[in-house]
Amino acid sequence: MSAVTRKTFDEVMVPNYAPAAFIPVSGLGSRLTDQDGKEYIDFACGIAVTSLGHRHPELTAVLHDQADHLWHLSNTHTNEPALRLARRLTETTFAERVFFCNSGAEANEAALKLARKYAVDRNPEKTQIVSCKQSFHGRTLFTVSVGGQPKYTEGFGPLPGNLAHIPFNDIAAAEATIHWGTAAVIVEPVQGEGGITPATKAYLQKLRELCDKHGALLIFDEVQIGVGRSGSLFSYMEYGVVPDILTSAKALGNGLPIGAMLTTKEIAATFVVGTHGSTYGGNPLVCAVADKVIEIVSRPETLAGVKQRHHWLVDGLKAINQKHQVFTEIRGQGLLIGAELIPALHGKAKDVLNAAAKQGLVTLVAGTNVVRFAPSLVISAEDLNEGLRRFELAVAEIAAQVTQAA
């Protein structure tokens, strides 16, 4: 078979993605190498997925060991790695029960279905789901409808009904919308695709209060900010606001596909046998790795390191901005950081990403105006500083374009 290149993508793949011009072929720690041997610092982690870096030795050892024992069983049997992971999650969070699936979208789909059924079993008219504008909860028809970005639902109607979208961090809007007919409220503690915007503690506290008042369930979508990225194992711990249901994925498998929905014993009882399922959910190969991920991330030194690296990264970005004046705000939580571009650069976030790639740095965007950073939770100071150095070169290039245009 002939060699594959970036051109091959355009010849054989469905065109719903626009991948970078280079193809990474190997990774180690926080560095990637492409087909041409060029090395990149990774500030993206596969969109906050490989949070312990590429080829982490402890994870690689667990993967190899499990591969020599058992790969798959399906949900007609349980398995030891899934049970160990579920026990670890229930011992380290508010949850008492866990459901495993393959992705964040599936975890949110399960959470929304569970919440609807829990409510409807008690009152058939209690079906409303409230979410936030500019939110993102997945790409299934249900989750993309719940997500508050119309661009992702255009052309896919008719859409699921009785959904309400309110402005993020707007307490008055929440009070006006959540009522006796609300089944659930779903919120990202830190909006990811919506621009890396953290919720205020007062807002999450008010959502908790309103859900308690009206008998609705509060769902925290921690698919991106969870598993240590906030500086705590899960972001709800940073806020001190406990949800009824929490969803996790991305970093949970450090690159292997897994999602999880965490909830209480009472709420979980709604999903009786046959109610919901997932062929690959609880796969032993993936669960063995995910169990080690949670063990590593839960270590005090790992979480303390996230907070330290947060300051290194934010301080570095601020220093770059003092010189080049391209950002209006640098915000986020832990190691999920967004830098919003000045009005003169609106729509240019992808240009910054491409300029960074030329300098050997992989970054992300969050919309068209925000550059997103999600480096490894254990990235070395050397790699973080080198990544910032390369990013400054990219910023200088973009800033020069603004100067020339003026």
TrEMBL record:
Q: Where the protein is mainly located, per its record? A: cytoplasm
Query: Per UniProt, which keywords does this protein have?
Result: Amino-acid biosynthesis, Aminotransferase, Arginine biosynthesis, Cytoplasm, Pyridoxal phosphate, Transferase
Q: Which GO terms describe its molecular function?
A: transaminase activity
Identify the SUPFAM superfamilies for this entry: PLP-dependent transferases
Localization, UniProt: Cytoplasm
User: What pathway is this protein a component of?
Assistant: Amino-acid biosynthesis; L-arginine biosynthesis; N(2)-acetyl-L-ornithine from L-glutamate: step 4/4
EC number(s) per UniProt? 2.6.1.11
Residues reported in the UniProt entry to bind N(2)-acetyl-L-ornithine: R139, S278
Residue sites binding pyridoxal 5'-phosphate per the record: G104, A105, F136, D221, E222, V223, Q224, T279
Q: Name one Pfam family in it.
A: Aminotran_3
Recorded catalytic reaction(s): these are:
N(2)-acetyl-L-ornithine + 2-oxoglutarate = N-acetyl-L-glutamate 5-semialdehyde + L-glutamate
- How cofactor binds (record note)? Binds 1 pyridoxal phosphate per subunit.
* PROSITE patterns with a match to the protein in the record: AA_TRANSFER_CLASS_3 (PS00600)
Q: Does the keyword Cytoplasm apply?
A: yes
Matching entries from InterPro entries are given as: Ac/SucOrn_transaminase_bac (IPR017652), AcOrn/SuccOrn_fam (IPR004636), Aminotrans_3 (IPR005814), Aminotrans_3_PPA_site (IPR049704), Class-III_PLP-dep_AT (IPR050103), PyrdxlP-dep_Trfase (IPR015424), PyrdxlP-dep_Trfase_major (IPR015421), PyrdxlP-dep_Trfase_small (IPR015422)
Q: Which residues carry this modification: N6-(pyridoxal phosphate)lysine?
A: K250
What this protein needs as a cofactor is:
pyridoxal 5'-phosphate
Q: Which family does it belong to?
A: Belongs to the class-III pyridoxal-phosphate-dependent aminotransferase family. ArgD subfamily.
What else is on record for this protein? May also have succinyldiaminopimelate aminotransferase activity, thus carrying out the corresponding step in lysine biosynthesis.
Q: Its quaternary structure? A: Homodimer.
**Which NCBIfam families does the record match to this protein?**
arg_catab_astC, argD, PRK01278.1, PRK05093.1, PRK12381.1
Q: What is this protein called?
A: Acetylornithine aminotransferase
